[in-house]
Design brief:
Structural class: alpha/beta
CATH topology of one domain: FAD/NAD(P)-binding domain
Low-confidence stretches: none
Largest sheet: 9 strands, mixed
Distance between the termini: 32 Å
Number of helices: 10
Strand content: 25-35%
Shape: globular
Radius of gyration: 21 Å
Order of helices and strands: EHEEHEEHEEEEEEEEHHHEEEEHHHH
Helix content: 25-40%
Bound molecules: flavin-adenine dinucleotide
Mean pLDDT: 92
């Protein structure tokens, strides 16, 4: 589709991950004109554990992704180990499925393009200004005008978003590989190590996703070298040692991101409506950030349509979206925050696992607190 720099779009969306892509498709279905800006080029890999809770399955299908036809692994069992190999297991009441971000984001981007959305790839949004109710979004590919701007740029704030309060830089790093190894289709494993944990489960294409989170400090203490960190720290866990030494690694190099933090942020900042991780990221051990991102797109798309149809004022849109967001996600993000503090520390993890092993109903309750209902 041609880029029309003089057009006034109903909505410009900054960031084409799950939140941005799902929002774009829903707005297009409601016949709004949408421009989506993504700084990478599809398809591309992303640091993510790639386990999606079942709550989003029907929603993703409703957007046009044929999950049923992809023979994806369905996951309903969780095994957790402590740094020294102490193991507990629990069935997952709702469970999830595995699909790589390479596949899922790309399929959604294709659907968005077919729905008439202008998707500009390799395009970095650098500034957003609001004057006389018209937004200007500055990018390396020119300036675009719209009635609304949504930010779905993910965990790390771009320079035009002012960050107040907590420290700007998150203290975690994430690393991902795709590997070929044997693991049961229905299983997700969570292996703890000193100051971190690693999730392992199957995705599409008979591939296994191995993804871990640890602190920047842990990496620094291992000479800023990911391989050293894996040798010295992760491989102390006997299960992880087995995966690292006996699997075939598909990526030549690890895929890594830094400066990640997990907390609730704002749903409206610098005149921009925020969704997905931009509004608040949940700790990955809950395996639920993707569902929160997609669910937040569903919530906000309804309010945006009402606003564009002049049925809501801008301040009503901001207020009602914020209240709905909090109702849906505040408790889940808080639970994830405290779980994150408990796991990945050698002593507390072992204690917590032993405790949960004796009280399986509490274990299941804890898991359910991080999950939402189907939408
Ligand atoms: C280690 C780790 C493991 C995880 N594992 C899981 C898991 O197993 N299950 C789960 O549900 N969740 C998991 N998550 C969380 C999940 O990855 C996120 O919650 C989810 O990706 C959020 O989607 P999003 O669309 O908000 O952001 P993203 O998917 O991060 O998308 C943001 C997009 O914005 C683009 N962008 C950023 N800035 C700009 C800019 N200025 N201009 C243009 N484009 C821009 C980026 O390129 C990116 O494509 C994990 C997270 C981490 C860190």
């Amino acid at each position: 589709m041609e880029i029309d720099k003089h057009k006034l779009y109903d909505c410009v969306i900054i960031g084409g991950g799950l939140a941005g892509l799902c929002l774009a498709i829903q707005l297009a279905k409601n016949e709004h004109s949408v421009l989506l800006i993504e700084k990478n080029k599809y398809p591309f890999h992303k640091v993510c554990g790639e386990y999606i809770s079942m709550e989003s399955y029907a929603f993703i299908q409703s957007l046009g992704v044929n999950l049923d036809g992809m023979n994806l692994p369905k996951i309903n069992q969780l095994n957790i180990t402590s740094h020294n190999g102490y193991k507990i297991s629990s069935p997952l009441a709702m469970g999830g499925f595995g699909i790589s971000r390479y596949t899922l984001d790309n399929q959604l981007a294709e659907i968005a393009k077919k729905a008439g959305i202008l998707v500009i790839e390799s395009c970095n949004a650098t500034d957003v200004k609001l004057q006389n109710n018209i937004y200007s979004v500055e990018t390396n590919k020119g300036s675009f005008k719209s009635k609304l701007v949504c930010g779905s740029y993910g965990k790390i704030e771009p320079s035009f978003i002012e960050v107040t309060g907590e420290k700007k830089k998150g203290k975690y790093i994430g690393v991902k590989y795709h590997i070929k190894t044997k693991i049961a289709e229905n299983l997700i494993e969570l292996h703890n190590f000193n100051d971190g944990y690693c999730g392992i489960s199957k995705v599409d294409n008979d591939t296994v996703c191995l993804c871990y989170l640890t602190t920047t400090k842990n990496l620094n203490e291992n000479g800023n070298d990911i391989k050293e960190l894996e040798r010295n720290v992760l491989m102390k866990n006997p299960d992880l040692k087995k995966y690292f030494t006996e699997s075939k690694f598909v990526f030549e190099k690890p895929l890594a991101i830094s400066q990640i933090g997990f907390r609730k942020k704002d749903t409206y900042k610098n005149d921009i409506l925020l969704l997905g991780d931009s509004a608040g990221a949940i700790a990955p051990l809950c395996g639920n950030g993707m569902s929160i991102a997609m669910r937040s797109s569903k919530i906000i798309s309804g309010y945006i349509t009402l606003y564009l149809q002049n049925k809501l004022t801008k301040s009503e849109l901001i207020k009602q979206y914020d209240s709905e967001w909090n109702k849906n996600f505040s408790l889940r993000i808080k639970t994830g925050y405290y779980l994150q503090k408990l796991f990945g520390k050698r002593f507390t993890t072992l204690l917590a696992l032993k405790f949960l092993n004796n009280f399986p109903f509490l274990f299941r309750k804890l898991i359910s607190l991080t999950h939402g209902n189907k939408f």
